[in-house]
Amino acid sequence: MRHVFPFSISLALAGCATAPAAWQAGDGLYHFDWRLSGDAAVAPLQVFDSPEGIWLQFPAGQAIPAIFGLGAQGEQLLAYQRRDPYVLLPPGWSQLVLRGGRRQAYAQRQRGPGDAPARLPAPPADATSSGQAPALAEAPVASSVAADSAQAVPSVSAPPAPVASSPHRPASAASPRFFAGPPDTTLRAVLSRWARQAGWVFGAEHWLPTVDIPLQGQAGFDGDFKVAVRQLLRATELGDRPLQPCFYANRVLRVLPLAQSCDRSVAGPA
């Protein structure tokens, strides 16, 4: 289940004072708590929703990518209306996929106090980040990484979990298969535990970045080991140190910088 690491966004509604009265709404009817991740070249500046639908604002001059709603039946191509400077989508979607060629971005709505819990399906397992161009130097579905510029190593916020989770995974069958959060405090520690859990090999020598990346928050991931790892590392795509996984046939996982080539045609060092 995909959760972008991304960061929550809380942006002011621009241009509201001059917007057409036909689509103005009263205070409190807009929900801005969406998270953005993926390639900034196809991502919007901000996403928010109202009873009328989902509003996306793109940079001036940027082509509108294909926009899909992600639900229980998979992806559905969405028609949109132009409400300059916004694009309006039909209501009812809590996860969006934006595609332009080989580039992808994601937007996910965070649950509000009155929202019911919702399970969202995972995006395709082959949607890796290795083919994407380096994105913004700010953090996965939104605007900036929650890291202090004074820190040498930026921290990564765990993507929001679509199911209730606690610092320690409950034993119930409904709990997500893979959990990121306390007591682990870094991405490397989470991956090491997941690898042992799934019967893969991941040691200190398989972590190629020169620094550890702190983990903030917690999240649960359904699906297999590869899907969970991809979703976890996707949170770094808009950060200062974007990472990618490299899976080998002998069940070895390596993590390397996004700009570095991953040759999967040879066996990884066990």
Describe this structure in words.
The protein is 8% helix and 24% strand. It has helices at 187-198, 225-234, and strands spanning 34-38, 46-50, 53-57, 66-71, 74-77, 81-83, 86-89, 95-100, 103-109, 156-157, 178-180, 215-216, 219-221, 243-247, 253-257. The chain is mainly beta and 270 residues long. The longest helix has 12 residues, at 187-198. The radius of gyration is 19 Å and the shape is elongated. It starts with 33 loop residues before the first strand and ends in a 13-residue tail after the last strand. Helix 1 (187-198) packs antiparallel against helix 2 (225-234). The strands form 5 sheets. It has a 5-stranded antiparallel sheet with strand order 1-9-8-4-5, with no helix packed on it. Strands 2-3-7-6 form a 4-stranded antiparallel sheet, with no helix packed on it. The protein has a single domain, classed as Immunoglobulin-like, CATH 2.60.40.
What is the CA-atom radius of gyration, in angstroms? Answer: 19 Å
Sheet-strand content, in percent, reads: 15-25%
Distance between the termini: 28 Å
Mean pLDDT: 73
How would you sum up the major sheet? 5 strands, antiparallel
Per CATH, the architecture is Sandwich
Low-pLDDT stretches are: 1-27, 116-154, 161-173
Shape: elongated
What is the CATH topology descriptor?
Immunoglobulin-like
**Tally of strands:** 15
SS element count, helices: 2
- What is the CATH class name? Mainly Beta
